[in-house]
């Protein structure tokens, strides 16, 4: 059963300007493995993390640095969660999280669906 949906859109040029103005944001928003990526890819990951927070229904107990977007061998993006963020997902009864990302025309977008194995009906 779907328990949450989130979507986010990021203007890549604006994101790059923000990072250049405030480089410490990289440490707050991204894991060490993500920080080495190009800003275009980081904008997509930022959108994914924001979409996840929306799908979870809020950011209580969720920390950006505990959310990492990691590609599967096929290239499909996936969330790797740790710390209290992983605990929040379990506490909210979420058993599966689906992520789709794209970037084109100067924008990065992400769509997240959070599912529960159990029906609340």
Describe what you observe in this structure.
The chain is an alpha+beta fold and 121 residues long. The chain has a single domain, classed as 4'-phosphopantetheinyl transferase domain (Ribosomal Protein L22, Chain A, Alpha-Beta Complex). Helices cover 38% and strands 31% of the residues. The chain is built from 5 helices and 5 strands; from the N terminus they run βααααββαββ. It has a 3-stranded antiparallel sheet. β2 and β3 form a beta hairpin. α1 crosses α4. The longest helix is centred in the middle third of the chain and has 18 residues, at 39-56. It is globular, with a radius of gyration of 14 Å. The N and C termini lie close together (10 Å). It catalyses: apo-[ACP] + CoA = holo-[ACP] + adenosine 3',5'-bisphosphate + H(+).
Count of DSSP-assigned helices: 5
Identify the CATH class: Alpha Beta
User: Could you say which structural class the secondary elements and strand pairing correspond to?
Assistant: alpha+beta
How many distinct folded domains?
1
Mean pLDDT: 94
Point out poorly predicted stretches. none
Strand order of the largest sheet: 1-5-4
Radius of gyration: 14 Å
Main sheet, how many strands, which sense, barrel? Answer: 3 strands, antiparallel
The N- to C-terminal Cα distance equals: 10 Å
Shape label: globular
CATH topology-level fold name: Ribosomal Protein L22, Chain A
Order of helices and strands: EHHHHEEHEE
């Amino acid at each position: 059963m779907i328990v949450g949906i989130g979507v986010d859109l990021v203007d890549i040029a604006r994101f790059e300007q923000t990072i250049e103005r405030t480089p410490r944001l990289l440490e707050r928003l991204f894991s060490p493995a993500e920080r080495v990526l190009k800003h275009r890819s980081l904008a997509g990951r930022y959108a994914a993390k924001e979409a996840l927070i929306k799908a979870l229904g809020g950011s209580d107990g969720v920390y950006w640095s505990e959310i990492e977007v990691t590609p599967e061998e096929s290239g499909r993006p996936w969330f790797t969660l740790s710390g209290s963020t992983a605990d929040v997902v379990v506490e909210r009864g979420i058993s599966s999280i689906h992520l789709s990302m794209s970037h084109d025309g100067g924008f990065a977008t992400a769509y997240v669906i959070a599912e529960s194995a159990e029906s609340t009906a």
